[in-house]
Amino acid sequence: MKQKFMLFWWRVWHHRNDAIFAKGKAKISHSTCFLQNYLANLHLIAEGTSEIDQKGKSPMVKLPSVQQHDNTKEKGWKKPELGWAKVNVDGSFLEESRSGAWGAVIRDHDERIILSAWDYIPRCNGADCAEAMACLEGLFKAMSGTDLPLIIETDCSSVTKVLILSSIDRLEVGTIAKEFQAMKGNREVRVCKVDRMDNRLAHSLAQLRRRELRGGVMQGTVSTCVFSEALHDCTNYVFST
């Protein structure tokens, strides 16, 4: 309880400084998400574990550890090669409203976050369309955010093929692919399919848009609500208040 009070007053002081010296726009909900993630990570570090059990499937009693060769080791985000930037994107389709959301995060070879962004897709005809729009929006943000050659990573194989083979016409997705090719112009851009575990930060950003009902762009950082995912991927990531 003492630890929680210390963290609570720490964020209260942050909001006090924001009200006096800044714009006074810091949100209580953001601090709540940040403190929950921060406290959870402190507990994990103390216990020697590395990831939050969000599904409640961990054993209630810790068993003695036995060394085994694990061939199903959890995958994770891989940093780009020297001189490149990676743009991880993810789209979310809302069937009931035929709309969607997208999230994107741009990182360099030093694992530093260059930019993160998320927003709403007002009209969307399916999951592939949402993913293609995420690729297009991620490219747009990256073109203005860095001069480095780009690697666009998505976890959707069908959209990856359409973006690489832009001559394939799949109605709305094909139209987005043509816009993608026109936007990149002569810029060196690769499009790659990755595992979902490699793409979880972009996925969380897309879900953030669905929860907050507004978009956002952040230079050099991410929202506190996805802080734990950023820490999992980027060892050089520093939270900026």
UniProtKB/TrEMBL annotation:
It comes from the Eukaryota. Gene3D superfamilies: Ribonuclease H-like superfamily/Ribonuclease H. Pfam families: RVT_3. One of its GO terms (molecular function) is nucleic acid binding. Residues 88-207 form the RNase H type-1 domain. This is RNase H type-1 domain-containing protein. The lineage of its organism: Eukaryota, Viridiplantae, Streptophyta, Embryophyta, Tracheophyta.
